[in-house]
Each structure stands twice: as C-alpha cells, then as structure tokens.
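Hello forum,

I keep getting stuck at the same step: I have a sequence, I want structure tokens, and every attempt I make locally crashes halfway through. Rather than fight my setup again tonight, could one of you with a working pipeline run this one for me? It's a single chain of 362 residues.
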Amino acid sequence: MKTPPRPLRAAALALAALLSFAPVRAAESYKVVDSARVGGAGGFDYVFADATGRRLYIPRGDRVTVFDLDSLKPAGVIADTNRVHGAAVDPQSHHGFSSSSPVVMWDTQTLATIKTIAVEGSPDGILFDPFNQRVYVLSHRAPNATVIDAKDGSIVGTVDLGGAPEQGASDGHGHLYFDIEDNHNVAVVDANTLKVTAHYDLAGKGGTPAGLALDAKNHVLFACCRNPPTCVILNADDGRILATLPIGSGTDGATFNPNTLEAFSSQGDGTLTVIKENSPTSFQVEQNVATKAGAKTCTLDSKTNRILLITADRAPAPAQAAAPAPGGKEEGNAKGPRGGRGGGRGQMVPDSFTILVVDRQP
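Reply #2:
Ran it on my machine without issues. Output:
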C-alpha cells in the first residue's frame, strides 16, 4: 500500500485527533416519558426528589404532599406548613425540613412531625448541605439564610448574602453557592464560618439568576438567568465566566447530573434546556425538551437519572389583566415585587396539578 505524502498524513492525523474530542450526540434524546395528574388545591413552587428515601416532596401552600418516587402514587402529607415553598432532606439523620414559617421538621420514614422551628424573614428556597449536615432556609428578606442543624433542628446562625437568594448548591467540601437574583451575582459562603467569601458578578452576561446548578467535581457553576434567558457558566473557584448559552424563557430552577455531565434548566415557557459539559471548559446546548407550560422548577432523581417537574393547567387570562413578571410565582406562593399570584395568567384549573417525568429515550 502506498504511503500518503507527509502533509496529507499529518492532516489526517490532526483531523482524527479533533474528531476524538468532538462531542458525539447520543442516539437517544430526552422526552416526557410519564406523567401523573395528582390534582389537589393550592399553589406550588419547588419540587424535591429524595433519591435515597425514594420520596418526592411537593409543597402546596399549606402542606407538603409526598409521593412514591418510583410509582408517583401518594405516600402521605406533612400538614401545617404555612406558605411553604420548598423541602429538603438529610438522608443520614432521616430528617426532613420545610421552607415555611415556622419550619416543620419531620421523620422521613414515618412522615411524623418532630418539631417546628421559628425563623425570621420570608422562607423560600431551601438547601441541605451534606458537609456538616446543615439546612439553609433562604429568604428574600433579612436574614437571607437561616442555618439549621439537621440532626436536632437547632438554629446554628444566619447569613447575610447581600441580596435575595433563589437557589443554592453545595460542593460537599465546605463551599456553598447561592444565586442572588436582585443583584445579578453568585454569593460564595464558607460553611464553617457562615461568612460570604466572594460575590461572582455575572458581568452583564445574564440577569435575574433564578436557577443554580453545580458540577462539584469539576468546579463549574451554571447560573440560569431570566433577563435575558441565558445560562452563565462560571468557574466555581474564582468566578471566571467560561461560557454563556441560550435557554428557554422563565427559568426558576436548575440541577446538574454528575452521572451524565449535564445541566438542566426548567422554564415556564414549557421547555427544559439540557446543557452538555463536554469538558470543564467546553459546553453546548444539547436539547430543548418540550415539557408543559408552567413547569419551571425541576429536581433530579440521581438513582434513575430522571428529571421531574410540576405544573398545572390554567384558564385563559382575563383580557384586562396585566402581563405577569417573567418567572413569577404560582398562585398562593407569590414572592413580592417580582411576580403576583398569577398576574395576567388565568386561574389554575381545579385538580389539574401534574407531575412530569423526563428521561432519555431512543
């Protein structure tokens, strides 16, 4: 066989090397593979999957409804959670916590209430940090974060985050990150001292960050913003912006799957944006999954790699109503000046509340 000329051989080798590092789109794509119309009255905000305990927690205004994570069948209710927005679980102590006033602490195996914990501010988002078994109850009003020991429910302290936090993430090694939606940055917190060590400015690349996801292993943050609809990707160690990518409109939640190296941003316009991390410095929008209007928060079942979202049908909006702020909270879970209790949207259709399941399919 005749050997190609040296320049052609070199070019062929270079092309082969380039192709070996190019991302290969999987033959499968994400889609809604299951849904459960579970109904029930009340507003809704965040949804949380306890992958270890196999429970799905959905706050509904005055209670937390609990479902079997595998079958989506009802598993119980945690009552008397006033204006609840989120839930978090410590899998080690088997204690769950509501982001409500007061905070309700329960046994995740029996769902029995253990105690209530009085907190200040206006509880909204919530985060469990496995580093030292603490729960962070977030508030747009001071104190921005109330820190609770998940083992006994005692309040450890509070943190001034310098603005209104939406979502948090932990690297499991003493570093916490919170997107500050009114000041367009990410606050970094030392879990030992409960002090803010840095604010990572989004530098005009994105505003009103409402979803935050973290690749803890590779130290990459995904700040999902509403204005404009953009994911700003940062180095978690120094805040350096690595990339910006377009997402759908009205994001209110994000998550990262370390098993697939994909970040997910859920949007109220009925899309779920999937961002593939090809390397710690290379990213691409892999897919915009059609979900359902209003499905703007999401959670990851890390055991099955499924993404779960929640939404409800709405009647046509009244003609005279003003348009709502992008990403405004659902009826019964309004969050002050940035969104009303439905705004220009019509009322929620009774018993239309639905859980959506997204997974890869051929």
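The helical segments are 6-21. If your local run keeps crashing, start a new thread with the error log.
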